Amino acid sequence: MRTAALTRRVALEAFAALALAACTPTQPPAAPPAPPQPVEQPQAAQQPNPEADRQLLEAADSGDLAQVRAALAAGANVESRDDDQRTPLVLAALADHVEVARELVAAGADPNAADYRQDTAFLVTGVTGSVGMLEALLPANPDFTLLNRYGGTALIPAGEHGHVEYIRAAVRTGIDVNHVNDLGWTALLEAVVLGDGSERYQQSVQILVDAGADVNIRDRNGVTALQHAEADGYTEIARILRAAS
User: Fold this and answer.
1) Which of 19, 44, 67, 173 is a good FRET partner for 244, with 20 to 30 A between their CA atoms?
2) What angle in degrees, to the nearest 10, is found between the helix axes of 199-210 and 235-244?
């Protein structure tokens, strides 16, 4: 009897074990390991090429477009500097090499890079009066608020020199026509005080007035552009300013 009971117990335990195994969910096989991802290799930094930089600066200064392209292709730094801290773009602007400037702008040249005199390529255009250069620089989004060593915008020396067509183009950029430089003058005041009252200065004054120049701004001595014009005998300029007052 005892042997039969023991045999029956062993059979029942075996049956229970088989039943438990049947109810236990089967574990899915482990996923295979993901393949290793390729590691992105850092790009090698461009090696300095002083000779190409020198050639680029010389070519920009002389207006040699083919040599500018060759120097850039050889790895020249478009922001290289000469002894006066002038970039190729500043040199091109000073010499009014418009096609060279376009090439440099397309290569990523910074229109706001300043030389030792605080001149940028765009500020230079106010002195040269080059509309072509101004237009060549616009795709590079120059900063119209940057100031030259006299604390003035590009528009102020343009007023001094009576660059009629340049002033006409510059006021369309949104440049501040009423900025006062460190000498206490606006573009309008410089067109009157430093001009000679001739037709080009008359036109310059009219364009500035039409663009919103404030005729009531006074210089450091408290004198308006109209008062200067009257004192200097600039009859036509005085008429324009009187009509705008």
Assistant:
1) 173
2) 10
> 0.85 cut: is pTM over it?
no
Q: Tell me the β-bridge partners of 224.
A: 218
129-141 tens-digit pLDDT? 999 999 999 999 9
Percent helix, strand and coil across the chain, each to the nearest 5: 55, 0, 45
Sign of torsion, CA 161 162 164 169?
Answer: positive
Q: Which two tokens stand for residue 154?
A: 């590009």
Ranges of each domain in the chain: 48-118, 144-245
CA distance 110 to 103: 12
Domain 48-118 sits in CATH at 1.25.40.20
Greatest Cα-to-Cα distance within the chain, rounded to the nearest angstrom: 144
Let me know how long the chain is.
Answer: 245
Residue in this structure with the two tokens 């059979």, named with its chain if needed: 11
